[in-house]
Amino acid sequence: MNAAWRWSRENLFSSPLNTALTVLSVALLGYMVPPLLDWALFSADFRGNTREACEGEGACWVFVRVHLPQFIYGFYPEELRWRVNLAFLLLPLWAAPLFWRRMSRKGWWLASLLLLYPLCAWTLFRGGVAGLAPVPTSDWGGLFLTLVIAGVGMAAALPLGVLLALGRRSRMPITRAICTVFIEFWRGVPLITVLFMASVMLPLFLPQGVNLDKLLRALIGVALFAGAYMAEVIRGGLQGVDRGQYEAAEALGLGYWRQMGLIILPQALRLVIPGIVNSFIALFKDTTLVLIIGLFDLLGIVQAAATDPRWLGSATEGYVFAGLLFWVFCYGMSLYSRRLERRPGAGR
After folding, report:
1. How many other β-carbons are positioned within 10 Å of the β-carbon of residue 253?
2. Mean pLDDT of the chain
3. Which candidate, 280, 278, 282, 137, places its Cα nearest to that of 218?
4. Is 219:198 a contact under the CB 8 Å cutoff?
């Protein structure tokens, strides 16, 4: 009891201003939380299969429950959704050895994860080989498509950002100029323009007979866009590494890439973990922009379901559900970044 009172005095009532803010916060919570709980839980409808089943004044969660498979998989054929589940199950299994401290050759395993896993996942998703029925990317959607776009963007942005950041700090003028122009070009346009160009303008410049998939064009645009922003974050980390570390790396007689890979980059990346995660979170949320080129991510699927005449008036529940999913993923990334920052000896 004494400990609770002492904590309250130190954190909630330490000054007149903090006391006033605490009282104001409690009043706001008392004003907002009871109606919210009543709408979301006590007066909500959970059972039924149609809009008519929602007779109460609260939320109609029946809408979310009925459309949940569509929110997760989009228009992916129901009998083939096991391929999506298998591909996403493979990812943690493939990545698990990287978290085992005694494992050697983590670099090779990480390379296999970055190079081979995307091929396996794409094969399972798309099909058309090894007896797997083909599923066009136009049928992909929902949370599945959101994770694909965000995952590819993140996986490509980090190595591309490292190369561009090193290139921008290179002593070779041509390399430095090319990387600088590339970064500033992609940072100078909004993502919505990049997606529009990838969807509408890029096919006009391709040779006759060459037709890249719309999703593939969007993935390339997202990866290049995210890579440019990531490069500037990593460049900040490189500038934050003490000059003595560069001199010590040169004194060891290591080559350029070994200096960067073994000494400089681990420290630089650790310095900018919050910035890297911030870029990943921004990219995850920006995936909703693919709706403008006809790809139905989670938010797009929710919007499409809410316009169904049979479910008019249920849009709020759908958007609340989508917002909660986005919050879970973004907050999860934030928690993991904090854990990495606190990890003893990380990057040293």
Report:
1. 8
2. 89
3. 137
4. no
